[in-house]
Each structure stands twice: as structure tokens, then as C-alpha cells.
């Protein structure tokens, strides 16, 4: 696109944007010729309404502004400026709302309002980091405004501003106007200094508003009479300044926060969807099945993810019960059904670790309730982890038994040399029970006087240890027991190392050698043999210690992996709670799929069967058989009605074709038809631009609220209202005059059956950025308000007439009528993608005198070609066909051959479903559930229609 084109488009947008405001200024100017009081009132009321609007918008949207304190302060300030301006308008000379007041009073109110406005604008730029709450601002401005009004009307201490018989404007008034201009200039400078805090568009509009206000104040310093032209021009500049404030604080100031909010929400949804699709843990959603006593006896699989199928090996389990997949599950000691049933019925989450005998695996299962009677489970395969823990337990028991069984004392410490283990022999030799010794230093528990001749040390000290313990250290000495007695011992000290080969503690193995010393002299000859034996035994113990060290390292590593996996499972469980809202779209997709099966499959076959019976009935001579065939035909018709009703309940066509408003109108008729419940629906909006998931969520929420009204409210009617709130909020209200209830008593934890539906609606509405409010009390009815973000669609839907338009329609019908009257048979062409249904129509029509079926087509392109080739009198056209649909095929045939009469076919009976094809050129609409005689009559009527 060229730069000139962009400039032209920008100019057009600005012209369209400012045209209404310019028209309003012209209207204000024209009003001055009629009555200056009218102009003055309109100008001041424009400013008052704009000021109040600024307050309402900034007050309710203050949490979304980047600079909360600034916008809250300015919004509250303009509320009270508007109050003073409104009082100024009411007391203006000639209005006579408050008679008896001179021109001085409205001038005093004017100058006080300008002081309040200018000082507030200047002060707002010093509040960016303020933590004062908005209600305090509101209280402060209220106090100041009351004092101003009291000083003018009650105490009369406010300086005179206009003396009607003494020169007009007073010196105080003129000086005040210049002071106000100075304050506004300072505010303009402060705005420029703070420009980086604001969006560029917002900054420009605020700057323009302050500059125009300064010009307006300068004009008000020169007028002589309150009805003078300078006064009028000053009011025009005031209107422009307030318009700039509107563009800055209401239009521009709100668009940025909300656009950012919706962008963040969309990004969050994409992240949640990616997480759900790539999770490695198994996920399944279930519905609990109860017996007649309300006891859980089974549960059904509703949905699973690929990871679940990979972990369990089960495929296509949706709709199946667990007892079908695992027949012996009720014999399992874990009692899965009862524990999961408790989760679904009571709402408390649970974690279960159990073994599946059929799958031969151990699973860690986290179960959560998503709504009453349903729960989700998250599966993790912990078979390897369980095997590792079992092996570690066996090794630990083996080690414990070994250490408790050997005849030597064994003491182990941590890296800080504090006792962590003592076997019974060590307790007996040291006199320290393990319970008392744990946590104490090794020197306190094992104090020994070494014998220099038996070790490398040269002095006597408690438990001498060399710095290098890479190899075991052995020596002998006198063990000082807890009771201060001494026994000779020999000891071996080994160092424990962690996985980094760092010192993690020591192991001290010692024994009582009293008997050795007693018989030492007698056994000197066997000393060498004894030393060899001791060395061998020491080496054996060393190997045992090394094995112990390895087992401890394996245990530490296993516990670390277990801890990390546990933390990961907890994090994923928290994330999955937020993904529960995504299940809504999956449910709606399944409902549409089932509705499509009913419409395109079952109903088509039943309609064909009904047509076959209709033709058969005319051939049966036996009255009894004919009556039976007629009853069968009626029964099939009833089945068609039931299937059509079920299809509409599952997936309302009006909702998917016409949007939310059309769907709610359909729901009103449905509630009246099925429950004799009157739904009074009123909508102020004709076109909406909402995503499909939001439309479905709002529709299902309204249907759930109406069902609650039918079951619990005790009233035959409810009122549903759809309207716009603000510029981008959609408000939907459901009210009834029923029994009402206490909302605080309806909670998920206290009353699961009654509260879960409302709780689910609230959670899903808040997920998409909306609000759900319940207003009710016993005996006063109930009201439910849903507020959602939306965008207005600029293109309104095109209304279709029930009959096609065209100047040549009547003449074409005359021509066809004359041509058909000269023939013996009406030539009919069939178009339907269901072969069974086409065969049924063919059998029904071939037995009818005066009608000849000349061809059949199964898609849109084929019927267009056959119509061009065969030129039939009547075409029976199905609305939904592959290729091009029946609507487009009708449009093409009608354009080329308007003399061919086209009858629309559909499984629905209501004519509004065929509006599009009738607008394309069809002459009438026939339900596929009609009888053969009704179809013949429709064909004949199409030929004779003028």
C-alpha cells in the first residue's frame, strides 16, 4: 500500500472519529440563537456527565491502570469538580431552580471548581509512589467540597467574584483566573516531566486538555455580562477540554490495560494446552457408578491421555468400566473402587501406592475430584523405584543383623565425628547405651589410652587418629568405660567416603582383649598364628565395611531420586488442576460428534424406513396389515422425533449457526416445550464476536442455571437478559422469583450435590477473565450475573427472507405450470448423500401416478450437472451434502433455470433451519420425517404454485 493511501485511510478514520463531536458543537452553537440559558445548561451538563463518567470508569478499573494512585486521584477529583459545576448550573442567573440568588453565587462556584480542578491536576503528578488508598482520597475531596459549599451558602465568607451593579468581575475573580492558569501551566510542566510514565496517545490528550483549559480560563477573565459572547466562547473551549479528558482517561486509558490482560490470558491457555499434550504421566478422567444404596461399585473411564495408554497397555478405554478391564480389581487389597469413590463423592484428594497384579506393575496414583461423581487420576509407574526400595530394605536388614551378630564392638560416626550407630557389643564394652550415645562426639563415648609400643603415636591421648585414613588404622589401648573402669581393647578405624570420595565419617571396630593379655604369656608361641588370624579377620571386616559403604551410597542416591521425582509429581499435579477447564471443549466436541451421528446416520435410516412403509401401506390390500404398517410408520416417526430432540439437546444447531443470541432464543423455546418453563429472554445485542469455547461455556452455564430453577426454585418462569456493560464487557443475568437460598450455605465442601454446579460455573467463568455473582436469599428469589469480556462485531448478520426474491419469479412459475399441464408425469430429480434414503424416496414415488423419477445424485456437483442435462420439473434437494452443499447447488441451478422447482429436504421440522436454501431459490421445505403422501402433495403443490 502506498504512503498516500495510508494517509488517506488515517484521514478518513480521524474524520469519522471527530464527526460526532463536531456535529455536537454545531448543535450547541445553534442553541445559542434560541436561548443562551439552554446553551449554558447543555455545555455545563456535558462537562458534568464527562466528569462523572471519568470517576465511574477510573474507580471501577483502578486495579488495571499502570499508575493506580494517579488515575484514582484524578477520577475522584473530577467527581467533585462535576458536583460543583452542577451546583453552578443550577444557580446560574435565569435558571430559577434556586431562586433569589444573584450572579455572584454561580461565579463563586465556578472559580472554586476551577481551583479544585487545577490543584488536583497538579497534585496528581506527585502521587505516583503514594500508597494512600482510594477511599481516603474520596473522603478528603468530600470534606473540601462540603467546606466550599458551606462557605458560599451558609457562612458567606467566600470572596465576591461578580458584582452585577458594581463593575462585573471582581479583582479577586480575575486574579484567581490568572492564578489558576499558572497552576495549570505547572501541571502541564509536571505532565511533560512524567511523560515516560504514560502511553504517547494518553500523554497527548492530557496535554491538549490542559492547554485548552488554560485558553478557556483566559477568556473568562474578560467578559462583562454572564450572557456575553466571551462567556459563550469560554464554554466552548471548556467543552473541548472535557472531550480531550474523555479521550485520555476513558477511551485511551482503558484500552491498554485490557488488551494486555487478554493477551496474557491467551498465552496462558497456550502454555496449559502444550503442558497437557506433552505430560509424561498417565492421566484419566472417570465417573463413579453407584448402586441403589449410593455405594460406589464401579467406575467408568471417560477420557485418557497417550501416556496412560503407554503405561497401562489399555487402548480405547473411553466408555468402559474398570471391572471390564481388570475383572479381579475388587479382590485387590487396596480397594481401588471404594477409595476412588470416596474421592469423587466427598471431594478430598488422595494418593495411593499399589500393585496391579494383572499388569505386574507398581503405580503411584494421585486422585482428585473435579465435580460431584467424577474424578481424575494421575498415574506414575514406580515399579523400578519400589524394587530399589525393597532391595535397599533387604540390604539394610542384612547389614543390621550382621553388625548385631558379630562379636566386636562397632561404632560409626558422621563427618562431624558424632556417634550415629553402636551395636550391642559396643554398648556392653563402653557402658554407653546407644540411645544415650547418639549425637555425642566419639571422644566422649570412646576414650582410650593408647600404648605407644603398639602404634605409631608417641603420647597418650583419647582416641588418637591420623589425618590420613585412606587405609584402616589399628591400635591397642585401655578403654576408659563410662563408669571410669578400664579394659584393654584393640581397635580398627576406617574412614567412610561419600560419592565424591570425601570423608563422610568413620567406623570404629574394637574388641575386649582382656583374655588375650591374661593368657598372653601362655600363648606367646601361637602369637604369629593369632596375628595372621586377626589380620585375616580385619580384612574381612574391611570388605564388609566397603560393601556397607556402597550400600549406603546406593541408598542415598535412591532417596535423592525419589525426592526429586516426588517434587516433580507435586508440581505437575498443581498444573493439572488448572487444566481442568480444558475438558469442557472436549465434552462439547463429543456431544457434537454424537449429534452428527444421530442426524446423519440414525435419523436418515429411520426416515428412509418410514418412506418404505408409506409406499408399502398403499400396496397392502389386507386392512389389518395396512393398519399394522401404519402403526409401525407412526412408531418410526416417533423415533425420528426422539432422535431429533436428542440431537438438538446435545448440539443445538441454532447455537452453532447463529451464535450465542440465537442459541439462547432456542433454549427459551426448548425449556417451554420440555418443562413448561417460561424463559423470558431479552437481548440488547444483535451481533457478537466471541470464540467458540466462550459461547459454549456461557450457553451451558445458562442451561445449568435454568435446570436448577426448574428443580429447586419452585417457579414456572425465569428472566434472562443480555446487554453491554461499558465498552467491552458483556453482562448476562438470570433471575427467578422462586424460593431462593442462602449462597453461603451452598459450598462444595458442605453440600456437594447442590453447590458443585454453581462452583463449576464460577471457576470456568473466572478462567476466561469473567465474573460470576450470586444474589439470593430464602423467599426472595435468585439472581445470577455473568460478566464476560467481548469485542463488538462490526459486520451484522444478513437477515434472510423465507421466500426468494426476484422480479421474474411469477412469470417463471406460469411458464412451468403451462409446461407441466401439458405432460402426463411430473419429472423429479433426487439429491441426497444417503443411498438408503434415496432408495426410500424412489420406492415411494415410483408407485405414484403422475410422478416420474428421472435421476438421482449423491453430491452437490452431480445434481447441478444432472439438472443441466435432464431439466426436471422438480428437484428434491438435501441441505447437507458433500462437495458443494444443497444451498450452493440451489443457488447455481436457480440462477440458470429458474423454472425448475426445488424442494429443500432436512431432518429438522422447523422451517427456520431452511432459511438459507429458501433464500437461495428453493420454493418450499420438507422434513425427511414426513409421509410419502405429504411428499407427493408437496411436489404437486410446487408445480402448481404461482
UniProtKB/TrEMBL annotation:
GO terms for cellular component: cytoplasm; membrane. It comes from Desulfobacter hydrogenophilus. This is Oxygen sensor histidine kinase NreB. It is found in: Cytoplasm. Pfam families: HATPase_c, HisKA_3, MASE3, PAS, PAS_8, Response_reg. Its EC number is 2.7.13.3. Keywords: 4Fe-4S, Cytoplasm, Iron, Iron-sulfur, Kinase, Membrane, Metal-binding, Phosphoprotein, Transferase, Transmembrane, Transmembrane helix, Two-component regulatory system. GO terms for molecular function: 4 iron, 4 sulfur cluster binding; metal ion binding; phosphorelay sensor kinase activity; protein dimerization activity. It comes from the Bacteria. Residues 797-819 are annotated as: Disordered. The lineage of its organism: Bacteria, Pseudomonadati, Thermodesulfobacteriota, Desulfobacteria, Desulfobacterales. Residues 473-525 form the PAC domain. Residues 702-792 form the Histidine kinase domain. Residues 395-448 form the PAS domain. The modification 4-aspartylphosphate is found at residue 878. Its cofactor is [4Fe-4S] cluster. Residues 827-943 form the Response regulatory domain. GO terms for biological process: regulation of DNA-templated transcription. The keyword rRNA-binding does not apply. Member of the two-component regulatory system NreB/NreC involved in the control of dissimilatory nitrate/nitrite reduction in response to oxygen. NreB functions as a direct oxygen sensor histidine kinase which is autophosphorylated, in the absence of oxygen, probably at the conserved histidine residue, and transfers its phosphate group probably to a conserved aspartate residue of NreC. NreB/NreC activates the expression of the nitrate (narGHJI) and nitrite (nir) reductase operons, as well as the putative nitrate transporter gene narT. It catalyses: ATP + protein L-histidine = ADP + protein N-phospho-L-histidine. SUPFAM superfamilies: ATPase domain of HSP90 chaperone/DNA topoisomerase II/histidine kinase, CheY-like, PYP-like sensor domain (PAS domain). The chain crosses the membrane at residues 14-31, 37-58, 70-89, 109-128, 135-155, 175-192, 204-226.
Amino acid at each position: 500500500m502506498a504512503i498516500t493511501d495510508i494517509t488517506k485511510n488515517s484521514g478518513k478514520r480521524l474524520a469519522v472519529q471527530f464527526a460526532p463531536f463536531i456535529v455536537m458543537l454545531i448543535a450547541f452553537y445553534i442553541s445559542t440563537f434560541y436561548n443562551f440559558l439552554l446553551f449554558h445548561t447543555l455545555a455545563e451538563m456535558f462537562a458534568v456527565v464527562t466528569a462523572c463518567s471519568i470517576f465511574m470508569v477510573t474507580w471501577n478499573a483502578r486495579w488495571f491502570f499502570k499508575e493506580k494512585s494517579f488515575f484514582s486521584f484524578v477520577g475522584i477529583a473530577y467527581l467533585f469538580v462535576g458536583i460543583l459545576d452542577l451546583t453552578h448550573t443550577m444557580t446560574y442567573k435565569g435558571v430559577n431552580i434556586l431562586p433569589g440568588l444573584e450572579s455572584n453565587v454561580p461565579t463563586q462556584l465556578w472559580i472554586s471548581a476551577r481551583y479544585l480542578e487545577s490543584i488536583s491536576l497538579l497534585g496528581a503528578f506527585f502521587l505516583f509512589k503514594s500508597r494512600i488508598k482510594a477511599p481516603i482520597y474520596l473522603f478528603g475531596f468530600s470534606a473540601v467540597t462540603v467546606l466550599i459549599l458551606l462557605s458560599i451558602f451558609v457562612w458567606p465568607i467566600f470572596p465576591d467574584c461578580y458584582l452585577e451593579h458594581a463593575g462585573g468581575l471582581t479583582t479577586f475573580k480575575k486574579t484567581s483566573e490568572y492564578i489558576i492558569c499558572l497552576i495549570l501551566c505547572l501541571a502541564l510542566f509536571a505532565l511533560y516531566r512524567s511523560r515516560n510514565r504514560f502511553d504517547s496517545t494518553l500523554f497527548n490528550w492530557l496535554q491538549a486538555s490542559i492547554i485548552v483549559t488554560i485558553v478557556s480560563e483566559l477568556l473568562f477573565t474578560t467578559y462583562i455580562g454572564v450572557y456575553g459572547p466571551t462567556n459563550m466562547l469560554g464554554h466552548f473551549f471548556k467543552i473541548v477540554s472535557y472531550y480531550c479528558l474523555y479521550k485520555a482517561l476513558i477511551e485511551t486509558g482503558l484500552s491498554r490495560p485490557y488488551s494486555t490482560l487478554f493477551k496474557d490470558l491467551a498465552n496462558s491457555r497456550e502454555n496449559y494446552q502444550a503442558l497437557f499434550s506433552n505430560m509424561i504421566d498417565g492421566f484419566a478422567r472417570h465417573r463413579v457408578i453407584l448402586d441403589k444404596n449410593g455405594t460406589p461399585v464401579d467406575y467408568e473411564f471417560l477420557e485418557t491421555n497417550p501416556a496412560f495408554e503407554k503405561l497401562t497397555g489399555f487402548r480405547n478405554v473411553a466408555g468402559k468400566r474398570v471391572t471390564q478391564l481388570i475383572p479381579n480389581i475388587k479382590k485387590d487389597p487396596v480397594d481401588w473402587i471404594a477409595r476412588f469413590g470416596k474421592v469423587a463423592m466427598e471431594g478430598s484428594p488422595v494418593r495411593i501406592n499399589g500393585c496391579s497384579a494383572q499388569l505386574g506393575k507398581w503405580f503411584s496414583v494421585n486422585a482428585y475430584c473435579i465435580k460431584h461423581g467424577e474424578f481424575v487420576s494421575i498415574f506414575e509407574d514406580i515399579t523400578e523405584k519400589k524394587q530399589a526400595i525393597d532391595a535397599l530394605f533387604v540390604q539394610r536388614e542384612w547389614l543390621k543383623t550382621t553388625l548385631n551378630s558379630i562379636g566386636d564392638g562397632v561404632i560409626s560416626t558422621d563427618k562431624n565425628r558424632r556417634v550415629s550407630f553402636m551395636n550391642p557389643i559396643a554398648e556392653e564394652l563402653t557402658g554407653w547405651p546407644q540411645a544415650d550415645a547418639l549425637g555425642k562426639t566419639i571422644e566422649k563415648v570412646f576414650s582410650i589410652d593408647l600404648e605407644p609400643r603398639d602404634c605409631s603415636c608417641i603420647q597418650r591421648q583419647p582416641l588418637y587418629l591420623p589425618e590420613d585414613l585412606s587405609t584402616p588404622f589399628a591400635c591397642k589401648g585401655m578403654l576408659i568405660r563410662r563408669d571410669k573402669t578400664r579394659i584393654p581393647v584393640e581397635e580398627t578405624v576406617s574412614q567412610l567416603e561419600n560419592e565424591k570420595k570425601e570423608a563422610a565419617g568413620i567406623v570404629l571396630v574394637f574388641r575386649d582383649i582382656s583374655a588375650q593379655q591374661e593368657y598372653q604369656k601362655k600363648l606367646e608361641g601361637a602369637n604369629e598364628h593369632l596375628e595372621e588370624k586377626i589380620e585375616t579377620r580385619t580384612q574381612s571386616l574391611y570388605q564388609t565395611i566397603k560393601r556397607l559403604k556402597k550400600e549406603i551410597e546406593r541408598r542415598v542416591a535412591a532417596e535423592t531420586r525419589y525426592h526429586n521425582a516426588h517434587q516433580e509429581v507435586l508440581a505437575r499435579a498443581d498444573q493439572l488442576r488448572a487444566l481442568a477447564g480444558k475438558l469442557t471443549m472436549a465434552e462439547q466436541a463429543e456431544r457434537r460428534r454424537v449429534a452428527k451421528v444421530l442426524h446423519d446416520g440414525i435419523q436418515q435410516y429411520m426416515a428412509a424406513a418410514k418412506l418404505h412403509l408409506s409406499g408399502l401401506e398403499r400396496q397392502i390390500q389386507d386392512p389389518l396389515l395396512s393398519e399394522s404398517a401404519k402403526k409401525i410408520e407412526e412408531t418410526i416417526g416417533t423415533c425420528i422425533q426422539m432422535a431429533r430432540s436428542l440431537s438438538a439437546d446435545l448440539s443445538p444447531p441454532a447455537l452453532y449457526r447463529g451464535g450465542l443470541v440465537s442459541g439462547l432464543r432456542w433454549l427459551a423455546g426448548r425449556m417451554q416445550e420440555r418443562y413448561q418453563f417460561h424463559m423470558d429472554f431479552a437481548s440488547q445485542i444483535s451481533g457478537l464476536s466471541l470464540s467458540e469455547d466462550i459461547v459454549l461455556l456461557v450457553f451451558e452455564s445458562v442451561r445449568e442455571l435454568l435446570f436448577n430453577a426448574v428443580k429447586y426454585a419452585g417457579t414456572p418462569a425465569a428472566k434472562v437478559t443480555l446487554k453491554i456493560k461499558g465498552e467491552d464487557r458483556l453482562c448476562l443475568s438470570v433471575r427467578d422469583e422462586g424460593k431462593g437460598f442462602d449462597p453461603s450455605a451452598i459450598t462444595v465442601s458442605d453440600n456437594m450435590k447442590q453447590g458443585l454446579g454453581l462452583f463449576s460455573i464460577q471457576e470456568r467463568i473466572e478462567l476466561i477473565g469473567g465474573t460470576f455473582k450470586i444474589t439470593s436469599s430464602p423467599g426472595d428469589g435468585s439472581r445470577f450475573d455473568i460478566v464476560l469480556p467481548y469485542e463488538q462485531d462490526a459486520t451484522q448478520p444478513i437477515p434472510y427472507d423465507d421466500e426468494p426474491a426476484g422480479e421474474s419469479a411469477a412469470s417463471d412459475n406460469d411458464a412451468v405450470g403451462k409446461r407441466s399441464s401439458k405432460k402426463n408425469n411430473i419429472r423429479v430429480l433426487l439429491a441426497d448423500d444417503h443411498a438408503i434414503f434415496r432408495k426410500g424416496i424412489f420406492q415411494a414415488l415410483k408407485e405414484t401416478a403422475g410422478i416420474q423419477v428421472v435421476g438421482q445424485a449423491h453430491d452437490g456437483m452431480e445434481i447441478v450437472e444432472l439438472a443441466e442435462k435432464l431439466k426436471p420439473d422438480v428437484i428434491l434437494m438435501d441441505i447437507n451434502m458433500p462437495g458443494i452443499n444443497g444451498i450452493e447447488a440451489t443457488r447455481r441451478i436457480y440462477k440458470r433455470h429458474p423454472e425448475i422447482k426445488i424442494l429443500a429436504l432436512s431432518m429438522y421440522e422447523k422451517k427456520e433451519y431452511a432459511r438459507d436454501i429458501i433464500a437461495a431459490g428453493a420454493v418450499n421445505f420438507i422434513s425427511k420425517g414426513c409421509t410419502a403422501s405429504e411428499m407427493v402433495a408437496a411436489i404437486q403443490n410446487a408445480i402448481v404454485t404461482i
